[in-house]
Specification:
Structural class: alpha+beta
Shape: globular
Order of helices and strands: HHEEEHHHHEEEEHEEEHHHH
Largest sheet: 5 strands, antiparallel
Strand order of the largest sheet: 7-6-10-9-8
Number of strands: 10
Helix content: 25-40%
Oligomer: single chain
Strand content: 15-25%
Number of helices: 11
Radius of gyration: 21 Å
């Protein structure tokens, strides 16, 4: 069980009102205080009523948070900051919804938005939103959409985990399918382990492990029969991630990359002010991949 720490961000402890929260988020959205069109970048704007602007170039009408991650979910700035605090402290969606008196769906969408924002700031974001994961289809007009209406089997990407000098990097291993990993296990005795539909291996080439989240088409019972023990070094990424991976049961192959990139972010920024970082991420304009 993961222990929830007390809020450690001095910024969150100082922001008490909706007005304070809005000013804080606006400082991340517009650090220079100069507004511009989030669609075309034009700086000549017409000021409208209700805090809206109209671009003189492309005629796009927008408000201060338009086109940014924070614009998903119809939540107030103060609600977003409370969600960020609970997310950083690793509360579940159920706990978050109860604490903030939100519906489960609203809380889940907010947490999903944070995970998308984290992945959008990864060095390999373009690949992560590409066809190998299919996650790019969840973004339309700089907003998150629901699950795409596509009856085809979603891709099951295989990820490689590399830990070096206290940092971890998780990337897509192109050219290797989930079925191929089972072949490596059968033919080359690559040890495999299972937590629900999440499968991970021992060291493979320059990777410390391979990991993927599969669907019901894969032969998980084979892993159960021949599963090998795992040695976790204290302070390693696997010691950090192992318990958390077990909590990811029920995660779909489509969403699994979001959870991996979340773990990468948490591990690499364990000593940083994650609250400040994630507030800035949420206030960035949603990129187009």
């Amino acid at each position: 069980m993961i222990q929830h720490s007390a809020s450690s961000s001095p910024i969150f402890n100082e922001v008490r009102t909706e007005s304070d929260a809005r000013e804080y988020m606006l400082s991340h959205c517009w650090p220079s205080h100069d507004r511009f069109c989030p669609r075309c970048g034009e700086k000549k704007l017409y000021t409208l009523s209700g805090g809206r602007y109209r671009c003189a170039e492309c005629k796009y009408t927008f408000q201060d948070f338009s086109g940014r991650w924070i614009n998903n979910g119809n939540l107030s700035p103060l609600s977003w900051l409370k969600i960020l605090d609970l997310f950083i402290r690793e509360h579940t969606v159920h706990e978050l919804a109860t604490e903030l008196e939100l519906s489960y769906n609203a809380a889940y969408k907010a947490v999903t938005t944070i995970r998308f924002a984290i992945m959008a700031h990864a060095v390999d974001a373009a690949q992560m939103f590409g066809p190998e994961t299919g996650l790019g289809v969840y973004l339309k007009n700089r907003k998150l959409t629901g699950d795409p209406k596509d009856s085809r089997r979603p891709p099951i990407p295989v990820f490689g985990i590399m830990e070096r000098n206290g940092w971890v990097f998780i990337d897509i291993v192109s050219g290797i399918a989930a079925e191929t990993v089972f072949h490596f296990n059968h033919s080359f005795h690559l040890a495999m382990h299972r937590a629900g539909n999440i499968v991970y291996t021992n060291r493979y080439r320059h990777y410390d492990a391979l990991v993927f989240c599969g669907d019901d088409s894969l032969p998980y019972e084979y892993i159960r029969k021949y599963e090998a023990a795992v040695h976790l070094e204290e302070g390693s990424f696997w010691a950090f991630a192992g318990q958390r991976l077990k909590l990811f049961r029920g995660v779909t192959p489509q969403r699994f990359p979001l959870y991996l990139k979340e773990l990468e972010f948490r591990f690499n920024n364990a000593g940083a002010d994650q609250f400040e970082m994630l507030a800035r991420y949420l206030c960035d304009i949603v990129p187009e991949f």
